[in-house]
Amino acid sequence: MSAAGGSATRWGEEQQAAARKGLWRKLLAILGLSPAARRADARAANCEAGAVGEQRTAALLQPLEAAGWTVLHDRSIPGARRANADHVLVSPGARVFLVDSKLWSSRYPVHAAGGTLWHGRVDRSRSVTSVLYETDLVARAVRVPVQPVIAMHNAPVNGNGFFVQGVPVVPASRLVEVLVGNDGPRSLAAGRLAETAVRTLPPYRG
After folding, report:
1. How confident is the model at residue 53 (pLDDT cuts 50, 70, 90)?
2. pLDDT above 90 covers what percent of the chain?
């Protein structure tokens, strides 16, 4: 099983290495004169924050495995070029969840207005579009409906949780509670569904 956040960290490191490839680029980066290196460093910092968020979510989800849930981290999505699924879970009730981890600044609250996700005054609708796209492809792969959930680290969440375009956005501290609360009775189909998820959503290699 791939480690949570592994692909995000690798991608950021690859961006930094590419911006410093060759002696001249490396020298410009050392002198602070390379815009490409600065951009790569900023992207790497965002990737590292994303990786930390995924690792924190993975730690929160560990107790569910002991309770009979199948928990998969950093998985490839058939049909997606670069997108990966942060966390895919199959519950004992044979329900599938796709959890997208976010680690955003605690300086600004997260809220919804007019069907748009906002972090302070920053439009974050792209995050919702991405998770809905990933959810659709995962559902096609496992051939059952999939429920997306955005788990928010650091940034305060308005109302302790809300929906935007049908996607629940919850504080990471409430994630397990929300998942368990949306499971159903135990189902014999859960084992077969978990096998399908493992087979069709292999570890993401980037």
Report:
1. confident
2. 70
Question: What global pTM score does this model have?
Answer: 0.78
In a domain, 26, yes or no: no
The token duo for 164 is 């935007």
| Residues 56, 171 contacting (CB under 8 angstroms) | no
- 34 within domain boundaries: no
Residue 168 near residue 158, CB atoms below 8 Å: no
Residue 133 DSSP one-character state: H
Q: What is the pLDDT of residues 131-157, one digit of tens each?
A: 999 999 999 999 999 999 999 999 999
- What would the DSSP string read from start to end of 17-38? HHHT-SHHHHHHHHTT--HHHH
C-alpha 11, offset from chain centre: 14
Do the domain assignments include residue 40? no
Most trustworthy range by pLDDT among 36-45, 76-85, 165-174: 165-174
Tokens of 31: 């002198």
DSSP structure class, residue 150: E
Token duo for residue 56:
């924190």
Question: Which CATH number fits the domain that encloses residue 154?
Answer: 3.40.1350
First CA to last CA distance, the chain: 15
